[in-house]
Design the sequence.
């Protein structure tokens, strides 16, 4: 492979000439990173099994962690899914384009590499003009995991993609910051009851408007870790900054007090640590170590900036990171899940 072409593209009025080049690269079996409304994706045409294999190689992604297939429209779903249950149609009408991925029975024509050998396939229509136009021009479904090296925080800026993948892919389309900031909700529709495999941009509360309260299963991630993972990707430490991250769970005042005590201990040992906490508590923590997750009752702010902050902690040279857990409602559940996975077991309950 030659040099990576890094192209700035307008998020609202994407330049056709770049989209056409990118679409041609995909069709010919190359890799293109592109923005979506959640995070940047690393795309490969599903018609090119070798390109799909390269996605795994480039990211260092474990071979048993399947990819999400992206479509430009619900109309293309029959090309990917062998069966479309009535619920899928209802969900697509309500949430597509948008951050909801549905797991459905896989059509035999989709290469096994895409879904890591599973009989199912994960699919969604992203809500971003660059992604939609690119998919339309490519004319084929595009498998695209997040455009980061495996294990690193997902990219929410073109710069993050370049940090991880420059020199490894043909093209990066940089359209500025993504909107939602955390990945799509993964919903399994192949069982008797819809099941959330990964919380994301479409919240459980939003799904309950369709299926009724209690109509959607959501296994506790802690339980999933101890047993066999339900979503293939769940067993890996994810979204991780280089420094160890401690997730502190509990009543806000206690959480803050605990973090402050830890900062004192770390300070004595001359270790630099960073704090991820809420805007309201900015003054409670020493300046310079504090990274704001936004307002406590606006989890969309934490979602939008979380991955960027994790990368910023590394850039600041933090040797440990203390994160105040968000409340587990609405989009807060997705933020909690990403922090929990970044913590890789370093979870402290302070009551
Ligand atoms: P990423 O695109 O990097 O955010 O990762 C895709 C996510 O979708 C991972 O958590 C996968 O485990 C999940 N996923 C993809 N395909 C399937 C599938 N067929 N069944 C269950 N989960 C899936
Ligand atoms: Mg990912």
Sequence:
């Amino acid at each position: 492979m030659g040099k990576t072409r890094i192209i700035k593209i307008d998020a609202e009025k994407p330049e056709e000439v770049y989209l056409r080049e990118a679409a041609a690269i995909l069709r010919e079996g190359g890799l293109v990173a592109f923005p979506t409304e959640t995070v940047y994706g690393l795309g490969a045409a599903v018609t090119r099994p070798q390109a799909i294999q390269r996605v795994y190689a480039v990211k260092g992604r474990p071979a048993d962690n399947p990819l999400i297939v992206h479509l430009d429209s619900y109309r293309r779903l029959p090309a990917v899914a062998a069966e479309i249950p009535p619920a899928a149609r209802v969900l697509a009408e309500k949430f597509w384009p948008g951050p909801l991925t549905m797991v459905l029975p896989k059509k035999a024509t989709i290469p096994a590499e895409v879904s890591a050998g599973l009989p199912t396939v994960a699919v969604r229509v992203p809500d971003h003009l660059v992604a939609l136009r690119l998919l339309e021009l490519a004319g084929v479904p595009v498998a695209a995991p997040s455009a980061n090296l495996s294990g690193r925080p997902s990219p929410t800026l073109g710069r993050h993609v370049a940090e991880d993948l420059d020199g490894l892919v043909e093209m990066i389309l940089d359209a500025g910051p993504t909107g939602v900031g955390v990945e799509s909700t993964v919903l399994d529709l192949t069982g008797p009851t819809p099941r959330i495999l990964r919380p994301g941009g479409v919240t459980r509360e939003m799904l309950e408007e369709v299926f009724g309260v209690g109509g959607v299963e959501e296994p506790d991630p802690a339980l999933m870790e101890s047993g066999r993972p339900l979503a293939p990707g769940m067993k890996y430490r994810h979204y991780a900054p280089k420094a160890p991250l401690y997730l502190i769970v509990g009543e806000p005042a206690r959480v803050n007090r605990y973090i402050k005590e830890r900062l004192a201990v770390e300070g004595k040992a001359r270790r630099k640590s960073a704090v991820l906490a809420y805007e309201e508590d900015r003054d409670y923590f020493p300046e310079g170590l504090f990274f704001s997750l936004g307002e406590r009752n606006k989890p969309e702010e934490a979602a939008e900036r979380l991955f960027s902050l994790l990368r910023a902690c590394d850039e600041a040279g933090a040797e440990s990171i203390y994160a105040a857990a968000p409340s587990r409602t609405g989009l807060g559940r997705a933020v909690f899940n990403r922090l929990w996975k970044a913590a890789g077991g370093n979870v402290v309950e302070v009551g």
In short: Residues 252-268 form the longest helix (17 residues). Confidence is low (pLDDT under 50) at residues 223-233.
